[in-house]
Design a protein that fits this description.
About 30% of the residues lie in helices and about 20% in strands. By secondary structure, it is α+β, with helices and mostly antiparallel strands. It has a single domain, classed as OmpA-like domain (60s Ribosomal Protein L30, Chain: A). It has a 4-stranded mixed sheet with strand order 1-4-2-3. α2 links the parallel β2 and β3. The protein is globular, with a radius of gyration of 13 Å. It starts with 9 loop residues before the first strand and ends with a strand.
Length: about 100
Amino acid sequence: MQAPLALPTLRFPRDQVTLTGLAREQMDSLATRLRARPDITLQIAVTGGQDGLDGQRSRAVHAALLARGVSAGQLRLAGSDADATGSASPARARLTLIRSLR
């Protein structure tokens, strides 16, 4: 039996869509694990940004995983659901396991 896939929480600096150094390291690790588990599909959504960049950030995470060799069939982009509370919380990527065939 495979170990559960731990999913990172990626944080973005205010007003930026680029991945931080830590986020790039997390993407490297996650991509390695996803390539070894083609039975897994992830949903990608960025939430909490108050600057209107959530969709671009979701696409940046998606592109980063594709660039690291993850199959497009394993990734799904969720619609933007930015925090409606008006709080100044940092934008963060939410990665959700939506399917595992094993």
